[in-house]
């Protein structure tokens, strides 16, 4: 109770005379920059640039942001995953550096989840001073008990684990690291931006009951069967064209078809792990839907006729600050590492929203403009491959070495006493995941991180009392 976050783009001023009797701070909070105002003031229709002019000006703003954020009186480096966003930031850093830029990536002993080789190829081409940290599954799992302390809130993006580890590796050589975060939200990088509108155009004619039936049919396909199909399919293709996380994608597709009456419903389904809050939260209101979206009133305004832009806008106000930036900042600061994000320079953001949609998504591929700029520095065959994210095999671990840890946190008697989450729904989901018939990694990880945080708070409270 009575704990709040200061929203992005806001500043809180406190009078020193009021420091000991703060009742309400709402009047002391003022916005200093607004994404909404920036979008309204930067209408793409006002420009007559051709592709080349847009690309030149975008590169100018990106280079300016990178140069400004590369000023430091301590050792500086960059995260390099080998993807488009981190590669373009690294390329622009190296362009104006007289010394090889220090770059960092993390690799895993599980080869199916290891993409460090891509980063190594890009680093070699750019001539950076590259460091790879290879970690075993057991080393990655050892981080999990620390997560409630590191994040200090229930935080459930499992890529927090490799993010923490790459920050730890970087902190041994540098004190500041530049990151490629926010490129997806600004330039249409997530699959849902082009996949969801295409899907809705194909199924919107169906009656809801027909779509729901199709969704349930897809849901009935066992995850083990999808994993086997994915493995066999990938054996026929080169590594850069491999399918990734097929069972997770089919699960999201089935959920979206079952629950969507509009493309807005489909978007909410794609960014939610559970169907609605009432599914697992005791006394939850089924009309609440996705609170993260609905608490922002501006979402009820129609700023865009383009649904892809609408999704990018919503992600920029929710997923970007509350997941991506939170994940990186907590992981870095717990290792005494400062991170800087050139894509979030206000001039880059404002220019990105002034660019036409075709500069972001073209031919059903995202980040078109970024790709064109990056190709000047890195050959396309080092960059172009399916987007996979920062994945680790959490789902497999939950059936194996993490099973005992998970079952202790999901203990029905303990959860009954807490009276927060619905025990029967969670236990049913847990059993289905253990059976291998379904892959409920994301849903369960959210619950487990909440339970782990709750346990951490209890232990901290009891420790404070005893001292």
Word description of this protein:
The longest helix is centred in the C-terminal third of the chain and has 26 residues, at 441-466. It contains 23 helices and seven strands. The strands form two sheets. Strands 5-4-3-6-7 form a five-stranded parallel beta sheet, sandwiched between helices. The protein is α/β, with parallel strands linked by helices. It has helices spanning 35-41, 51-69, 84-95, 116-126, 137-141, 147-151, 160-171, 183-187, 192-203, 208-219, 223-234, 246-259, 263-271, 291-294, 307-317, 319-333, 346-354, 368-374, 394-399, 403-409, 412-418, 423-435, 441-466; strands spanning 10-12, 29-31, 76-79, 102-108, 129-135, 176-178, 338-340. The protein is globular, with a radius of gyration of 23 Å. Helix content is 51%, strand content 6%. The mean pLDDT is 87.
Helix/sheet category: alpha/beta
Q: Using only CA atoms, what is the Rg?
A: 23 Å
Element-by-element helix/strand order: EEHHEHEHEHHHEHHHHHHHHHEHHHHHHH
Distance between the termini: 23 Å
The largest sheet, given as strand count, sense and whether it forms a barrel, is:
5 strands, parallel
Give a quick rundown of the structure.
The chain is of the alpha/beta class and 467 residues long. 51% of the residues lie in helices and 6% in strands. The mean pLDDT is 87.
